[in-house]
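User: I want to check something. If I give you two sequences, will you return the structure for each one separately, not as a complex?

Assistant: Yes, each is folded on its own. Here is the first sequence with its structure:
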Amino acid sequence: FSPRNPLEDARTRVAIQQLQTRDREVRQHEQAHMAAAGGLLKAGPFYSYIQGPDGKRYAIGGSVEIDTTEPRDDPEAALEKGLAIQTAALAPAQPSGADLAVAALGARMEQRARAELARREAAVNAYAQQAAGDAFIAARGEPPRSIGVAVDRAA
């Protein structure tokens, strides 16, 4: 029987408390991602562990997988998904560097979608202006103007 070293026991207790705190933080972090991800969640959570001086495993890192593929030919869906990706990535109280990178990916998706929606709206407005001009010209008895189409006038 060897006497226990009180200083060593105190260090062990502190180490275990620190590992327990880290484990709790990691699990809360990943749970925040999962709760916010909703239908974007693909897999996880996955944890990396370390064995403590008490022989127990403690989570020291973690991850979840979310779907970050951009919807094709649907800017409304891409806008919604970009915002959802940002929400899921930034859900934890203290986002990691990887979380910030995923949020930036979602922000770029959102920006592309907004640009495409603006482009489409501008095209619709240009067409509407052209149609309104054609209606005005037709009301004056002139044939409508068409972009890229030659109009034969009857003499």
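And separately, the second sequence with its own structure:
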Amino acid sequence: AFHAALTGQDRRERFPNYQRFAEAEHDWNHRLLVRQLFNAVRTGDKSVFTIYCRDLAVRRFHQGFSAEEFCGAVELLNLICMRILRRDPASEGMRQQILDYLTLTLRYGCDQAQETFEELSIRGGTWPGRPASTSSLSTSGTSSAQSGSSPASSC
């Protein structure tokens, strides 16, 4: 569902960089993202997810993504999760908990990603503690036709 939501005909303009990923890569990326989200929700520690989003934002920045595209995908994931949870009778009466644990965790992840994109823009693409050369980041995670793809990216 997430792959189709990012790559559907009406989403190509909003999510242009996600169009480069094959469906299998989207599925892997989604699995990694959701795993980090589950860990944050399960432990109640939002930093698990925000740290992951920071690292992923560095990767996506070097792949040519904008903060808006990155956070738009995270917001889309929240919408999908909310639709699914609304249909689940077990989630009835849990609106506040869902907002606190799911939506706020995703929002904090987006906030961290936006800060990371801004910092990278100011620093000319370099991240503290990381070498200036990030050429390996700029091609990893693109479709296999473009680079040989690495499944270690997400969102």
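Because they were folded independently, the notes below concern the second chain alone. Confidence is low (pLDDT under 50) at residues 131-154. The chain has seven helices and no strands.
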